[in-house]
Design brief:
alpha+beta, Glutaredoxin, globular, disulfide bond, glutathione disulfide oxidoreductase activity, redox-active center, transport, Thioredoxin-like_sf
Length: 86
């Protein structure tokens, strides 16, 4: 299974929903980058994604986006192939 990295904060409800969705699809480990605990990582996230909001999800080297993007990808049937393409 591809590595999943999620830029997040400790209190973000959309981050929690993204994590639940990923776990329901068999993801056992999510590397969480908590930008509220490590403020320097927020700049990294914005540079890497071009976005300011959390969550920002990477599956392997692919930037999926936020929760709405992740959910839409799942509804279209694209999430599992991306997760399994390692």
């Amino acid at each position: 299974m591809n590595k999943v990295v999620m830029y997040s904060t400790q209190v973000c409800p959309y981050c929690q929903m993204a994590e639940r969705l990923l776990k329901s699809r068999g993801v056992e480990q999510i590397e969480k980058v908590l930008i509220d605990r490590e403020p320097g990582r927020r700049e990294e996230m914005m540079t890497r994604t071009g976005r300011r909001t959390v969550p920002q999800v990477y599956i392997g080297e692919t930037h999926v986006g936020g929760y709405d993007d992740l959910s839409a990808l799942d509804r279209k049937g694209g999430l599992m192939p991306l997760l399994e393409s390692a």
